[in-house]
Amino acid sequence: MQGLVLALFGACIGSFTNVVAWRLPRQESVVVPGSHCPRCGHAVRWHDNLPIFGWLLLLGRCRDCRSPISVRYPVVEALSAGLWLSAAYVQPSGGGGLPLAVLPWAGLPLIALLLPLVLIDFDHMWLPEPLCRWGVLVGLSISTTAGLAVFVDHLIATVLALLALESLSALAERLAGKPALGLGDAKLAAMGGAWLGLWGIALAMGLAVFAGAVVGGVARITGRLAPQQPFPFGPFIALGIWLVWLMGPFWWWEQWQAALTPWLGL
């Protein structure tokens, strides 16, 4: 029953995430006006706005003007539902060192913040600073439930992650003439530090670099990316943050060691 409730609420938040991802880059209010067709302007009826099912009932078209509605809407709602459900399976080794009493609920605002950041970065190669800033504040606030030592660790991780990625970007710009990372990536990493702590964000960034290198390499080999064409790195950082949140940094470190052992002959 708990899983069904999480999935339903996650789908509803996914519906709102679609609104945020569409309106925030256009500097529009995410609250007013209510959901409406961007082509004909008609308000979406409440029963047509049901996550996933509304799109299916409408057969993917606006009830008023019959313009197509992107399949991305139900996909994001379903993805959000799945991510909210996955939050229930956070391991004791994960959760950024927070007490079990606040898990898995503590991961829900993290997902609610990460998903719109991923979508906006995919669409616009931009990570909105207000969302990252709120992510830092909420993460640090929740970390106080684990005591002063955890809070200080998360605070240090926030600062070091921001400085490390900004420094790396500045160094790359000096050596290669262009930044290796956007400043939004540094702010997202700082947000990850606020939720995961020092070891957590270190492992999350390791996973992000590995995943980004694999996906980017395949995309360039297959011709989907030109040799010098940039691609968003924020989604990989977000993936690393969530994976480390679920399992913990030391679990991922053990998997990394196990994978390398045969190659190193240890």
Structural description of this entry:
The termini are far apart. The protein folds into two domains: 1-89, no CATH class; 123-255, no CATH class. With 266 residues, the protein is an all-alpha fold. The protein has helices spanning 2-23, 53-57, 72-86, 107-124, 129-143, 148-176, 183-221, 234-247, 249-264. The longest helix is centred in the C-terminal third of the chain and has 39 residues, at 183-221.
Describe the protein's topology.
Blueprint: H1 2-23, H2 53-57, H3 72-86, H4 107-124, H5 129-143, H6 148-176, H7 183-221, H8 234-247, H9 249-264
Helix pairs in contact: 1-3, 1-4, 4-5, 4-8, 5-6, 5-7, 6-7, 7-8, 7-9
In short:
With 266 residues, the chain is an all-alpha fold. The chain contains 9 helices and no strands.
- How many E strands? 0
Q: From the alpha-carbon coordinates, what is the Rg to the nearest angstrom?
A: 20 Å
Q: Specify the oligomeric state.
A: single chain
Count of separate structural domains: 2
What's the pLDDT, averaged over the residues?
89
Would you tell me the structural class of the helices and strands?
Answer: mainly alpha
Q: What share of the residues lie within helices?
A: 55-70%
Query: Biggest β-sheet, characterized?
Result: none
N/C terminus separation: 46 Å
Query: What is the overall shape?
Result: globular
Number of helical elements: 9
Please report which band the strand proportion falls in: under 5%, 5-15%, 15-25%, 25-35%, 35-45% or over 45%.
under 5%
H/E series: HHHHHHHHH
